[in-house]
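Methods — Computational structure assignment.
A single polypeptide chain was analysed. Its primary sequence is given first, followed by the predicted tertiary structure written as structure tokens.
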Amino acid sequence: MVDLNGRFLNRTPLRGRFPKAAPDPKSPGLLSFFRGDTIRLDIQIFDEAGLPQDLGTPTSIVSTWKDDECFIEALFVLDLTDGITILDAANGIIRVELSPDRSGQLIPASYVFDVEVELDDGTIGTVIKQYVEIVADVTDRFA
């Protein structure tokens, strides 16, 4: 269940691993959101030892959203200037957010996104790849 801010009720943030992506049994397989709603995903990044990754001052954090992971063209590319916020750098917690206008551009279907982090020491890692489902809303401003 999700609250109006797109956060899961009674759940911890999604888990990402750094520097290598790995399936995490604690992360759900498919997240479902309504078209035209604000989508907020809080993600906590862990290091290889399973401890929260101190992000320091990352060079970049990028989230790419696609129809299919095999497609070359992205639907959205979010970064620290637009759509990604560092909530707690010391504990590796970030927020990836799609505005209602952006999520309203998505037809009801399944999509995939990932998050890639570049630390200030030059280390780059894809910390999470996640599938999402956009479903039609009864009150759909974008139909």
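Note: The radius of gyration is 15 Å.
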